[in-house]
Amino acid sequence: MIKAYLLSAALFCTVFGAAIQKQQRVVVNDQYEFEWAIENDVITVSVTAATTGYAGFGIGPSGNMVNADLAVFGVLDGSGYLDDYYSEKNGAPSLDTELGGTSDWVLVEATEDETRTITTFSRKLVTSDAAFDQPILPGPTSVIWSLGTSDSLEYHGQSAGAVEVVFIEA
Ligand code: HEM
Questions:
Q1: For each of the chain's 170 residues, which pLDDT tens digit applies?
Q2: E strands along 22-170, which residues?
Q3: How close is the Cα of 69 to the center of ligand 1, in Å?
Q4: For site-directed labelling of 69, which of 9, 60, 90, 99 has its Cα 20 to 30 A away?
Q5: Which residue is closest in CA terms to ligand 1's atom 18?
């Protein structure tokens, strides 16, 4: 697992509005980076992905798709989309709602140009969907990511991986 490289850390940033407690950015590689802010019990994440297809962001305790809590998002025909998935294994995930859970990640904004998609979304740190959402707790968290070549949720090939992130200091 790659150790996340924290590019910046700033208190009271204005990226997501006023009164943000903390905001940080992780550059995974030249294809994928994300930043986040936590305000009270809500985390807002913004992913910049080098694709005009789908991108995925998840909490994967094993560093892969086993028991992973996934958000899959992008822009299709000019409209942003985001869906809350869960995966028991390395393979096609299921929507939380198909499994009896709830959809908890909320799309804030999504834009794309010729080469990249920028998507912002938020969720409670600990949702009430305990079966299909991983809680975001103090200490190291394994974040997984993926990129698709289209907006169909298909196998990502080599365009997936994991980074360890501390969202909340222990
Ligand atoms: C239909 C959708 C998907 C399919 C069929 C699929 C399939 C697979 C398969 C077969 C593997 C094991 C082989 C390999 O490492 O490449 C794998 C690994 C992985 N997948 Fe997926 N996946 C899907 C979507 C996603 C999404 C949405 C994410 C992240 C948000 C994701 C993250 C990962 C990660 C992090 C690994 C481990 C990669 C590594 O060990 O380097 N996958 N996936």
A1: 444 444 444 333 444 443 334 569 999 999 999 999 999 999 999 999 999 999 999 999 999 999 999 999 999 999 999 999 999 999 999 999 999 999 999 999 999 999 999 999 999 999 999 999 999 999 999 999 999 999 999 999 999 999 999 999 88
A2: 22-27, 32-39, 42-49, 55-59, 68-76, 79-87, 94-95, 106-112, 117-124, 140-147, 160-166
A3: 12
A4: 9
A5: 90
Whole-structure pTM value: 0.89
List of residues 6+ apart from 7 with CB closer than 8 A: 24, 25, 26, 27
Tell which atom from ligand 1 comes closest to the C-alpha of 70.
Answer: 30
Q: Which domains does the chain have, with CATH numbers?
A: 2-166 (2.60.40.1210)
CA 58 to ligand 1 centroid distance, Å: 11
Cβ 56 under 6 angstroms from ligand 1: yes
